[in-house]
Amino acid sequence: MNNINLQQALAQVHQWLTTGQPKQAEQLLLQLHAQYPDNSVVLTHLIGFALNKKQYAQAQGYIDTLLTDPTTITDKQQFLHLIRMFIQHNRFKAGLRLSSNVAKALESDVEVLAARCHCAIDARALAEAQKWLNTSSDLVNSNPYLMHTRANIASMQGHFEQAISDFHTVLANEPGNSYAAARIAKCGRVSEQTLEALHNAGTQDGDDEAKARINLALGKAYADKGDYDKAWEFAEKGNQYNRKAAKFDAQVFKQQVDHIIDVFTADRIKATQSDNIQEHVFIVGMPRSGTTLAEQILSIVDDYYAGGETPALEYALGFTKEGGNYTQSLIDGTPIDWRAACEAYEDYFSQFANFSGNLIVNKVPTNFFHVGLIKLMFPKAKIINMHRDPLDVAVSVFFETFSQYFAYTNDLKDIFFVYDQYQRLMKHWNSLFEQDVLTVSYQSLVSDYQTQVDNIGRFLGRTLPSADEIRGASNHVETPSLWQVRQPINTNAVKKWKRYEKQLDEFVKQYS
């Protein structure tokens, strides 16, 4: 097959792909690969096929060939397609390898630089992204999106003054940028300049979600200033906008909890557990319950990796034939082959650029829903349940922007309803896994750190760091706690609900 035929064959591949004939396309690509083993277009297609089939070893072989010299990839659309594909399939190391060796012809392209930085952020290689942005400072300073990216990176690293400066510049150029407004409000105490920028943002056009972000940012700003009535007014307004976009069905949620409690029995768990021996750690609890602080404490312990908040469990389930329907196998008494899921779970984290250690600390608060699944996959896993005053949880959640997946966060009644369901589930998990579940009071942790951290250390069989040491934790923070967790441990957030006692009146008697 000569060069002209190669181009004709690639055109045929494209036609088959667009007309829904992937098998024919893949067969032709394999023939082309045999004759043109280094052709980057052929390799890009084959990488896509292998990744979609979760044939990662085969995909890696194609990736290694393609990225022998990444600078040869000079086509912008191919570069962007590869970055998107690597991110989609959690192949962050491959994406970072391509991003770190970009062709000269693409270095000054805004879209390419943004994609490289996006990949580096997802790969947890913030220093790399920061370096690329600094190298292209003129380009960044003239582009609000890139400047917003630089500000996000700075805030995740705890460089708040730099982040605030960039966010202000972004808002000066794009007054209605709700993401910048939301983010700047999380970077510490709000100045008059920031408050003015937030109010200006609120006067701009935008959809309901944008208005929600801006109003919640204003709520946080006024809370920082001590004007709690005005803070609640803006928080309520923000949540009203959110309620337009996302509806919470309490009945469906309760049915899901009922199903989990009915399905997970001691006998079923024993019959279906894997033989994995890793003692990974899972930090669970209601959102805004201190899970980020708990992760920071463990993040500088040898052999632990701070895994952050990821969909790793859901990702791992995709490697079993049962997938999300694994509870039916429990009911039927059908054995589940957890090996592939456990390997996929660990591989998920190993793809991050900063991965180290042997044991993963998974900090997804709402994994309280999945403790049974966790103990099926990793029978020796340790569960740390962060418990916080429900009134403080409700206030903190009510002032925060969450995705539509967390529709219950937009209404106090729904927040307390979910809190009650969380309590039901944790009671059930404690009855099944009592020795491997430790409930830690956030209030006690911040008021009597050493006693509580010694208790956690005994539970994990580890020596944990002092309060001063955890401030030096180098892992980046992506959660709403990015400012608080960088401060010395304090009790400022304890009994915060009392500032809003009249707004919480109907719940105080039951939950205080």
Structure description:
With 512 residues, the protein is mostly helical. Among the domains are: 143-245, Serine Threonine Protein Phosphatase 5, Tetratricopeptide repeat (Alpha Horseshoe); 257-511, Rossmann fold, CATH 3.40.50.300. It contains 28 helices and five strands. It has a five-stranded parallel β-sheet with strand order 2-3-1-4-5, with helices on both faces. Helix 2 crosses helix 3 (40-52) and helix 10 (144-157) runs antiparallel to helix 11. It starts with a helix and ends with a helix. 42% of the residues are buried.
CATH class division of the domain at 257-511 = Alpha Beta
Shape descriptor reads globular
| Order of strands, widest sheet | 2-3-1-4-5
CATH topology of the domain at 257-511: Rossmann fold
Topology, number of strands:
5
- Unreliable residue stretches: none
Supply the helix-strand structural class.
Answer: mainly alpha
CATH architecture of the domain at 257-511: 3-Layer(aba) Sandwich
Strand content: under 5%
Question: What portion of residues is helical?
Answer: 55-70%
Distance between the termini: 77 Å
Question: CATH homologous superfamily name of the domain at 257-511?
Answer: P-loop containing nucleotide triphosphate hydrolases
How much is the radius of gyration in Å?
A: 25 Å
- Mean pLDDT level: 92
Tally of DSSP helical segments: 28
Biggest sheet overview: 5 strands, parallel
How are the SSEs placed, and which strands pair?
Elements (H helix, E strand, L loop, with lengths): L2 H16 L3 H14 L4 H13 L3 H11 L9 H13 L3 H8 L10 H13 L3 H10 L1 H5 L2 H14 L2 H14 L4 H7 L7 H11 L5 H18 L2 H18 L4 H14 L2 H7 L8 E5 L5 H9 L4 E5 L3 H6 L8 H7 L6 H12 L8 E4 L8 H7 L4 E6 L2 H9 L13 H22 L3 E5 H6 L1 H12 L6 H4 L34 H7 L1
Parallel strand pairs: 1-3, 1-4, 2-3, 4-5
Helix pairs in contact: 1-2, 2-3, 3-4, 5-6, 5-7, 6-7, 7-8, 7-10, 8-10, 10-11, 11-12, 12-14, 13-14, 14-15, 16-24, 23-24
